[in-house]
Design a protein that fits this description.
Shape: globular
Distance between the termini: 12 Å
Strand order of the largest sheet: 1-10-9-6-2-3-5
Length: 242
Amino acid sequence: MSVIVHADRAALVAQTADRLTALLQELVEAQGKATIAVTGGSVGTELLAALAERAIDWQRVVITWSDERFVAADSPDRNAVQAREALLERVPIPVEQVHELAADDGSASDAAAALQAAAAAGTAMLHDLGQIDLTILGMGPDAHIASLFPGLPGIQESGVAVIGVTDSPKPPPTRLSFTVGAINASDRVWLVVAGADKAEAVALVRGGAAPSEAPAGAAAGRRETLMLLDAEAAALLEEDGR
């Protein structure tokens, strides 16, 4: 995992948008399309908004999400709803190239079965999408990524690409998430992290904490793994000299 520190949050967002724009152009030129999994959260949404102002060939970009809240499709809690407002409704990306994880339509009498079916559908969708060129992740103050939280069994799931989460300590509690296996099947993984409240988690990850304590430490792309930080998130790295 390579660490790149930016001066502040605004620089992190702008320079990561530039980095991503250049990568998308490179991928489109080399293979005709680019497939990325994006994230929610405040920094992730700011990054998507910045992309709307970049010169990107959206006709050749395929988008999905590394995690999603299993709530109604129009809920403001949905990462996809936030992404539509920040980016997707502002650029000419074909609707068939946007692949949301399932929403809860409220019709199921068995909530657990509905979540399990949604996770299975997500796993099948990822199989159909093929190789993910880049998975973008945020990170919480507890070092969680996607909806894989410390101390919960999701970090250990194997054999599937998407799991249902029923006990997220961060509301809403019911979610869908890439597994570590799905994240690490991506060619590239970028963790985009800002804020002083993330500094201890960043230090944990860089210090080699076990994935059960710091799930972000388990993230590793097949070709590239970047931790993109603002100065506040990197503050303890500077103090420790790491």
